[in-house]
Amino acid sequence: MATLWRFTLFLCMLLMACGGLSLASQEAETRNTQTETGTGSSSNTTGGGGHEAAPITTLPIVTWKWHHISVQYLVALWVLVCWLCKLIIEANHNVTNYIPESALLICSGFILGGMIWGADKMQTFSLSPTVFFYFLLPQIILDSGYHMPNKLFFTNLGAILVHAVIGTCWNAASLGLSLWGCHMGGAMGDLDIGLLQYLLFGSLMAAVDPVAVLAVFDQVHVNEVLFIIVFGESLLNDGVTVVLFNVFDAFVSLGGGRINAAEIVKGIVSFFVVAFGGSLVGIAFGILIALLTRCTKNIQIIEPGFIFVMGYLSYLTAEMLSLSAILSTTFCGVLCQKYVRANMDESSVQTVKYAMKVFANGSETIIFVFLGISAIDKVIWVWNTGFILLTLLFIFVYRFIGVFFLQWILNRYRLVPIELIDMVIMSYGGLRGAVAYGLAVLLDENKIKEKNLMICTTLIVVYFTVILQGITMKPLVMWLKVKRAEVTEVSLLEKMTNKMFNHTLVAIEDISGQIGDNYFRSKWRHFEEKWMTPLLMKPSARKKQDEVFDVFHQLNLKDAMEYVTEGERSGSLEFVRNDSAILDFKKKLESEYTEVIPDIPPYMINNHGAMFTMGRDPIPSVSLEMHEQTMKAMREAEAVNAHHLLDQHLYKSRKQYRHGFSRSDFKINRDEKEVQEIFQRTMRNRLESFKSAKMGVSPPKTIVKHSKKEQQEKIPNGKSMSKTKLCHSGDEDFEFSEGDSASGYDSSYPSFSMRATYRPGGGIENPAFVPDLYPTDLLQIPPWLAESEPDSSMVAPSLRAQANLPNSPMEMRRMGLLRTSTRSTDTKQMNNDQFPPPPTPPPPPSGHM
Amino acid sequence: MGSRASRLLREEEIEEIKKETGFSHSQITRLYSRFTSLDKGENGTLSREDFQRIPELAINPLGDRIINAFFPEGEDQVNFRGFMRTLAHFRPIEDNEKNKNPSATEPLNSRTNKLLFAFRLYDLDRDDKISRDELLQVLRMMVGVNISDEQLGSIADRTIQEADTNGDSCISFNEFIKASFVVNIHICTVVFSFLS
């Protein structure tokens, strides 16, 4: 380790010296601090041009062309240095366990800055706002948007917005006013700062910084609700900060006398324009991305690039229109993630994911290092004890007050209130970061005399929050016993029961006739189903997803099972054996499934096989630590796999959305099909129960059981047997389901092209042809009815039941719409349209007809 | 509507229900009006058909089981009291309520009772055990069509294996509670706020 350190130091010294000297010679006269990346390019390139123009006397074989590439070279070197810092820091696990990486990065920035200072006697490199806002920030924001756990985000959107908007305003106003008050009271001596300047300062200090929050909270693993509220707030409050900053900046320029009510109203209006405009730009770009990825099949190699380019463009576009760029990029990512993941090839999805992480993590590292470097500059250090300490105090105190007050109000409307301890963490997690610094540097020195004091204070606040609060966060979380992210894997039973509760809840809501709080969500889903998905998702994506992933997860599950048993049997040596087991399994799978589904592209299997072997680490690892890590990873993977299947296939209750933590799984809306399946199943069951009631076997609690038995007897005559395909093995226990599955398949043919491949030669059907296909589909009697036929001597569904059974997707859709619109009062009327009445032969139940 | 319903419901009856279920007065009256609008036979009780007429339940995979849960064993009518008693399972858990009378019987919306409700949904034959068969039935109801029976079987086996501590390859209620340790009980509460 020590050698590594020394080596790096040496490298850094070398670098500093050569970079710093060359720049110093070239730009000493300009003496501005804008050099880090592209910003200095103009002067550099012209200088380079000048060199080239010199007449040559002979053909040079090798020439020293530093000026040609100095800027690019420095950029690359700086990136390298920053990442090396990270490498060194991450190599010391025992340190990073106690001190967050971001704090360490800032400290290494101090060291680097000191070296530059030692070489140059001035700060040649510092974080310029241009570099920060246009080259470092966008990818971090895009990453967080793209990997946003959507469900969590939108369920807590209310709280997030309240904190982001009101909380930020409160922070800005209270800090500005209090500082001004203290100034008036004479606490800071002689400063040339007016009320408006204080408010401007307050507004730039107000925003919690997404980069800092992410860096610290990522390592603490608090529970996800807490995380999403703080993190969401930090993302969304950018809109507020930008507006506040611009408004007060303008006010400062205008001067106190010229501010009237009209200007203030304009300020408020501009808030809405900036926030919503930014979001709209983001949404537009998100849709564009989704549309683009629909047709990038032939250029798979650069497919992932579109995401980045478009994401960056969304940032720039919003910036160009002076809207909130962060909001724009966030929403762009949030919106496109689902469609992008479905549309693109699996490998592209992985590429996007990793590349996104590389960029985001990389620029995060650079930001922190440069935050540290920027500090080592004599120019900006203007000490004013009162101002700085009071700022720190007020920021801390008002953050607490704001969060507690707002959350106290919010808690009255929350089902699961945020606990006091969580609120403490929320307040404590109000980290300020590079955004504040960037804004502070943007201040106009002519208008604000004490700009340097403000920059210096901002830096101190950033260091205080990131380093001190960052370091103490973890112990605090431990000490307060904050609910951590649940790392314990949920057992299958729990998963089932949770799901069950969800279904039950929806049912209870329906029974008690209430419009659940998921009303808007289900509206949105209908909208999405109807317009967004067909528009933004390529049809083949759905198809691919449905089958291949099916197989993939089956495989995963089996594999995991095998792994478990074998792992249990053979202790720690299983890696060696398992490798061969996987190969066997892969072969087996290939032979098995390629026969059944000729559709499945062989490369998918190969890919997955490769993934397994990769993840499995076939070489028995020597290091015990390594080994344990792998074991742990394996165990996690296996739990994920086993549960994946359930996740994939459990019916979603209307209330439940899985959130997108799991990166590898794209979920597609299969709800309509599900609804249809469930509906037919229910109807069948009811028919069966009528039958059984007629036969005198009427214990209600055994309805399902009973119907199952009947089903078993019946199946041999039923047509549906021949229709069951793929993995339905015809296990005796499950005859019941066979019929169902067949009905699910058949009746969903017309609209669900993803099913199309089950029918040989079926091809992909155009949803537009649904009406045409419908009659033919009717001819192809739904197995639901086909199965009941053998029994028709006993019980036959009435004509009306047959006619009314919504086996066309159109009707189902109608049904789905009704579901949301039907309220308690008009159920009766609806029922007569919707439900096949009970079969005619048995006497109708009382009051139904 | 609410006033009409409350006229039909006697005050003392409301008080009793209030004590038993913990619903507030206005919630009871609102639910009563819902009850009467469901009650097509207008005889003060709900039958299975009354429930089945709610269209949303037809597309709920567990719809019929939940309907069954409303009916006491062997009966096929449920009155308002019974209706409320079942609904009370889904009220949010209140801490202060527990503290008020620790000696009293457990309220219907306690964690245990919520879990018991779920347990009953699995346990068809009411032998206080979830057998593999019962588990499979529920699984089959809750999953889509394109999962194979073999897989479902292995899921069921694994589920039982995970939860079964005494090795009888059934899940008893105690085992169920233990295994459902992490079940997010908060999601098993309906916000009846619309009623208050």
Automatic annotation (TrEMBL), chain A:
GO terms for molecular function: potassium:proton antiporter activity; sodium:proton antiporter activity. PROSITE patterns: PROKAR_LIPOPROTEIN. The gene is SLC9A3. The chain crosses the membrane at residues 69-89, 101-119, 125-142, 154-175, 195-217, 224-248, 268-292, 361-381, 387-408, 420-440, 452-471. It is found in: Apical cell membrane; Early endosome membrane; Recycling endosome membrane. It is a multi-pass membrane protein. Residues 97-479 form the Cation/H+ exchanger transmembrane domain. One of its GO terms (biological process) is regulation of intracellular pH. This is Sodium/hydrogen exchanger. Residues 835-849 have a biased composition (Pro residues). PANTHER family: SODIUM/HYDROGEN EXCHANGER (PTHR10110), SODIUM_HYDROGEN EXCHANGER 3 (PTHR10110:SF90). Belongs to the monovalent cation:proton antiporter 1 (CPA1) transporter (TC 2.A.36) family. GO terms for cellular component: brush border membrane; early endosome membrane; recycling endosome membrane. Residues 1-24 form the signal peptide. Residues 33-45 have a biased composition (Low complexity). Residues 819-834 have a biased composition (Polar residues). It catalyses: Na(+)(in) + H(+)(out) = Na(+)(out) + H(+)(in). Residues 29-51, 704-726, 818-849 are annotated as: Disordered. InterPro entries: Cation/H_exchanger_CPA1, Cation/H_exchanger_TM, Na/H_exchanger_3/5, NaH_exchanger. Plasma membrane Na(+)/H(+) antiporter. Exchanges intracellular H(+) ions for extracellular Na(+) in 1:1 stoichiometry, playing a key role in salt and fluid absorption and pH homeostasis. Major apical Na(+)/H(+) exchanger in kidney and intestine playing an important role in renal and intestine Na(+) absorption and blood pressure regulation. Keywords: Antiport, Cell membrane, Endosome, Ion transport, Membrane, Phosphoprotein, Signal, Sodium, Sodium transport, Transmembrane, Transmembrane helix, Transport. It comes from Oreochromis aureus (Israeli tilapia). It holds the Pfam family Na_H_Exchanger. Its main location: membrane.
From TrEMBL, chain B:
Residues 26-61, 110-145, 151-186 form the EF-hand domain. Gene3D superfamilies: EF-hand. One of its GO terms (molecular function) is calcium ion binding. Signal peptide: none annotated. It comes from the Eukaryota. GO terms for biological process: protein transport. One of its GO terms (cellular component) is nucleus. Pfam families: EF-hand_7. PROSITE patterns: EF_HAND_1, EF_HAND_2. The keyword Coiled coil does not apply. Keywords: Calcium, Cell membrane, Cytoplasm, Lipoprotein, Membrane, Metal-binding, Myristate, Nucleus, Phosphoprotein, Protein transport, Repeat, Transport. Its main location: membrane. It is found in: Cell membrane; Cytoplasm; Nucleus. Belongs to the calcineurin regulatory subunit family. CHP subfamily. This is EF-hand domain-containing protein. The lineage of its organism: Eukaryota, Metazoa, Chordata, Craniata, Vertebrata.
